[in-house]
Amino acid sequence: MFLPVLCEGSSAQSCQISDAILDLINQGVGIFAASSNSNCVPALSYVVGCRIHEGRQAITLFVDASEAGCLLENAKSSGRLSAVFSCPSTHQTIQIKGLVLKVSPASTEDFRYIEETVQRFTSDVMGLGFSKDYCVFMNAYDANAIMALTLQPQHIFDQTPGSQAGKLMSGQS
User: Fold this and answer.
1) What is the mean pLDDT of residues 105-134?
2) What is the distance between the alpha carbons of residues 95 and 93, in angstroms, rounded to a whole number?
3) Collapsed DSSP state (helix, strand, coil) of residue 62
4) What percent of the chain has pLDDT over 90?
5) Are the CB atoms for 63 and 142 separated by under 8 Å?
6) Cα–Cα distance between 29 and 8 in angstroms, integer?
7) d(Cα 124, Cα 88) in Å, to the nearest integer?
8) Which end is more exposed in the chain, N or C (fewer Cβ atoms within 10 Å of the end residue's Cβ)?
């Protein structure tokens, strides 16, 4: 089922994902997504994969609906989503906040992006001494329950621990 969340013709401003951010995401990151309900109660879910769209003004996050039910409901109702991308070996971390463009079941093609994300994350974490079994456990998902949340980035923040944490990297101020 395709659920349009953001109306066509919206005046929402997007920001483009830079080369540096693309490089970070492609080096092997753990990803979490969050959204809140109308009472500002948050829901958080592990993201098993992502896809940066051509033009770099949209990103699709893949979650296991059997574990991300509250997140999906919040994202549908609020139209907002936040995602954190963190590289375990360097602690380099960014946060992308934006508007949910659509929520839909993952397509067959999407599983290529999921596997690429899992492989890059596994490689990074195994380099830290974690076992392959641990990585398999961390990235387990039900292929029949994968949902795709497409996000239009509006703000990108540096969340790497240190003096620049919280600094706006891109988007409106």
Assistant:
1) 95
2) 7
3) strand
4) 83
5) no
6) 32
7) 7
8) C
In this prediction the pTM is 0.89
User: No. of H helices and E strands in the chain?
Assistant: 4, 9
Whether the per-residue pLDDT at 88 is higher than 90: the answer is yes
Three-class SS state of 124 = helix
Which pair of structure tokens corresponds to residue 78? 């609020």
Least Cα distance to 102 among 51, 158, 43 occurs for: 51
Q: What is the DSSP string of 125-163?
A: HHTTT--HHHHHHHT---GGGEEEEEEEEEEEEE-SSST
Write the DSSP string, 105-118. EPPTTHHHHHHHHH
Tell me the pLDDT band of 173, cut-offs 50, 70 and 90. Answer: low
CA distance 170 to 149: 21
The single-letter code of the amino acid at 163 is: S
- Let me know how long the chain is: 173
Collect all residues with Cβ–Cβ distance below 8 Å to 33 and sequence separation of at least 6.
44, 45, 47, 61, 63, 68, 71, 75, 81, 82, 83, 84, 149
Provide the β-strand partners of residue 62: 49, 148
